[in-house]
Structures are given as C-alpha cells and as structure tokens.
C-alpha cells in the first residue's frame, strides 16, 4: 500500500516544475536569526523548489515545537512537503516516539537508517507513518568521504554464501519495507546507478552532495536521481533565488537529455 | 590523549558507589509534565545513580535549549555526568554542529554511530569533544531484536580476505578512534563478552536493555559491562527511589562475584 508522501512529492514537482529539495541548513549563533533567515530563504526560493528538508541545524537550536514548527507551517501554506532529516537509528520504542513527534510537529516524512534492522527497529516508524499517512526515506549511500566504510562495505551472507555490498542490501530492504524514497549521495554517481537498477522508478532516489560537497548534478540525474537535495549552494549564495532557479534549470535540462 | 569524561564517570561511580546510568525516558503528552516528572525522578534517585542519559524522549518535546538545559543544570548541581543519546550518524559538517549544540547545552558526552566512518563522518565529533573536553560513546551492539541485522552481520574485508562480525570492527574502531565508551545491549551477554575481550578495561561498556527489554543484570556485569543503563524499571516503578537502590545493589553484588 503506497503512502501519501510519494504522490505529494510528485504533485509538488509537477506544480513547480522542480526536483530541488531545499536543505534548510542555516547556521547562526543566534536562534532568532536562524528562524528569520530560514523564513526569508523560503520566501525567496519557494517557486523553484519542490520540498524542504530540515535537520539538526534547525531542530537543536530552535526546538521541534518552537521555531521548527513555525517553519513547517510556512511550508504548508506554500504547499511544500517537508522532510525531517533525523537519520533515526534507535530501538523500536524510541523510534516510535521519534516518528510521532516529527509527524505531530507537521513533517510529511522522515529519514531513517536501515542499519538498525526491522524488528523492534524501523518497523514502528513504518507503522506510525502508515497510521499518520506520512513518508519514510531510507539512507542507502551517504554523500561523505567515509561513506564507503559502512555503506560501501561488503557483507557476507551465511545462508546464501554470497558477498554483497551493504548499499545493495539496503536498497532491497527499501523495496521490501515499502520506503517512500532512498538517499544516495550525488558524490557517488556509480552508486546511484547501481541502486537505480534495483529500485527502478518504484522508490525515488534523493541525492544530497551537489555543490559544496562536489557532486555533479547532471551526472546524478543521468545516473537515476529523481530529487536533488541542495543546501549551501542556495543558502550561502548572494542571491538564493537566482541560484535556486539556475540549479532547478540545470536539473531540468539534464532530465531532457536522459 | 584520554578525555576528561572517563575520569568524570569513574569519580561519580566511586562517590555514589553506583554503576547505574539513568535513562531519563519520560513519556507524557504534556511537555510541562515531562519536565516536572524528570526533575522529580532525578531528585528521588540521584543518590543511587552515577550518570543520566537523555534521548529524544525529552529532546524533541522539551527542546535542547529549553527544558533539557534545565535538567542538565540540575544534574550538574548534583554532580551527575550527562550523556546525550542522539546516536549521531550524519556527514561531518552536520556532526560537528550536532556535537557543538549538545555540548554547549551542557552535555558531558554524546553517543554516535561508527557506521558512518571516520573521514568527514565521526572525525569532527571527536575533534569537538577534544576541544570542549567532552566524551564520545560509540554504538557497538544495540539491545533490540533486529540488532543482528546490522551490528551482528558479517563483513568481508577484501584486503585481508577475512570475514569478521560488524561489532568486532566497531569495537576495534572504538579503540583506534579513542572512544570514551561503547554501547552493548545487556540483552546479548555473549556480545558483551566478545567486545570486552577486545577492549579490556580501556573503553568501558555501557549496557542498556535490562528490565523492560529482558536483559539480565548479573549476566551483563559478569560478561564485562561496566555501566548499566536503566530506564523504565526505575521510571515506571511505584517507588523509583527504591527500585534504583535495589538495581544498584544487584549490580554491586554481581561485581563482587566477578
């Protein structure tokens, strides 16, 4: 049973002709200024993005039910889906509480780490998502340098006697568990391709890591990324609006040549 | 270079003759009541515990710089070290910000997941911990049912041609990276033993999962756990003070027979 989140994203994508997810990672010493800057950036770039991803950059200084909720309300007014990048990886009872809190605050989806497994691990998150009609996106290959240490390691499966990459196992679990999306770093286009070969169009790939982290947008799109997660290249630009539009256009151009 | 946190824990342990870390996982619909209950439990059990662990049960509804900071202040007044159970598993720049926020709020240590690896992964957390003189505790084998899916899987290492359990690799990384502690579920005493054989007394083992989750205190202690993390058995007891004292005594008895 597909959850509502995937169609919410597709709708937003069509409406704004954009596959850019804004990573709202605003950094400032003063929480008040973080909130003001976040609101200002949303107002300036919202017509060029299809969703907003929020992580601990905002959650820790502003509080989930403080400043973050205000931002979520603004996103909702603008019709932009929101993703909690909390990388949940706890035991079942805590994962359940984590999901309930993020969804109650207004997030449409959250990101979790499949490394914790299913029983008494991620299962409660999927249950809460089903009940509250929200989405779950799973980490499959992260964008940073040491990603190969964990996501890229080879796992020996005693039952089959096979050796398979961790990210392949995670991609298969994403299908099995009914995830609404997976994260694969734009910095590793060959991994995007490998994971896309497993998932096809049934579980969309979200790719962070373009711009500041060095990933190439065109390569990511051609390799199978559906959504590009962009933070610093927009937020730290002199003109965030212009930057968002230009990145949106590069993605759309790359899609045409796909 | 050992950080200050390990000696802070040893001091607290000696002073109170306790190896119990209270998992302050208070659940309530109303944030005000969560704060009041948390304060009340600390006041009632503080003489029988050696530290307090706080996770998203409090961080999400109360806010890190709201209610959580008040609890951290109370813990400091009582001379109890505090651990942020945030299970950090992000990219380097976000991990750095996560550590800075938790430590600035007053936490003495945080928990991170070694699965993200070192470069541009956990390295910045260790750097911030060094600079601010705080501790880092790494997940090595969690207490829940599906723990075997990730922490218990077998990893094939191409260079050596060896197949080794994930938790052994994590334990070795804890030594290599200079962690101040590791988490190993009390529900898996044979894993505690295996990890203790690698770490000896140089990296203390913290074990959650006794009580509600079914782990046996005596078995955990005899297998090598130094600190027992206890939540529901104390918090949900009719008399939290009596329960904390009794669990403290069971741990101390088990140590004697070790």
Please provide a written account of the structure.
The structure is a homodimer of 258-residue chains. Chain A is an alpha/beta fold and 258 residues long. Chain A has a single domain (4-256), classed as TIM Barrel (Alpha-Beta Barrel), CATH 3.20.20.70. The first copy, chain A, is 52% helix and 17% strand. Chain A has helices spanning 4-16, 31-45, 56-77, 92-105, 118-132, 147-150, 166-177, 189-199, 217-223, 232-235, 240-256; strands at residues 20-23, 51-54, 82-88, 109-112, 135-141, 154-157, 162-165, 181-184, 205-207, 227-230. Chain A has an eight-stranded parallel beta barrel, surrounded by eight helices. In chain A, helix 4 links the parallel strand 3 and strand 4. In chain A, helix 4 (92-105) runs parallel beside helix 5. The longest helix of chain A has 22 residues, at 56-77. Chain A is globular and about 55 Å long. The mean pLDDT of chain A is 96. At the A-B interface, helix 3, helix 4, helix 5, helix 6 and strand 6 of A face helix 3, helix 4, helix 5, helix 6 and strand 6 of B. Strand 6 (154-157) of chain A pairs antiparallel with strand 6 of chain B.
């Amino acid at each position: 049973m597909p959850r509502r989140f995937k169609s919410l994203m597709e709708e937003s994508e069509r409406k704004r002709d954009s596959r850019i997810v804004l990573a709202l990672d605003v950094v400032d010493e003063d929480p008040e200024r973080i909130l003001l800057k976040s609101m200002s950036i949303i107002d300036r770039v919202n017509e060029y993005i299809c969703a907003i991803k929020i992580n601990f950059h905002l959650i820790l200084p502003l509080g989930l039910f403080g400043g973050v909720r205000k931002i979520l309300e603004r996103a909702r007014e603008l019709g932009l889906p929101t993703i909690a990048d909390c990388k949940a990886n706890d035991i079942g009872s805590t994962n359940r509480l984590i999901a309930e809190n993020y969804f109650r605050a207004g997030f449409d989806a959250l990101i979790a780490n499949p490394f914790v497994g299913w029983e008494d691990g991620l299962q409660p998150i999927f249950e809460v998502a089903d009940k509250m009609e929200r989405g779950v996106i799973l980490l499959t290959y992260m964008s940073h340098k040491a990603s190969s240490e964990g996501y890229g390691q080879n796992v020996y499966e005693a039952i089959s006697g096979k050796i398979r990459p961790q990210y392949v196992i995670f991609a298969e679990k994403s299908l099995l568990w009914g995830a609404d999306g997976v994260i694969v770093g734009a910095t590793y286009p060959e991994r995007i391709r490998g994971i896309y070969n497993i998932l096809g169009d049934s579980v969309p790939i979200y790719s962070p890591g373009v711009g500041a982290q060095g990933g190439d947008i065109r390569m990511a799109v051609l390799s199978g990324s559906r959504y590009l997660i962009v933070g610093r290249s927009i937020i730290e630009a002199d003109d965030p609006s212009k930057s968002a539009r230009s990145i949106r256009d590069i993605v759309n151009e790359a899609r045409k040549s796909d």
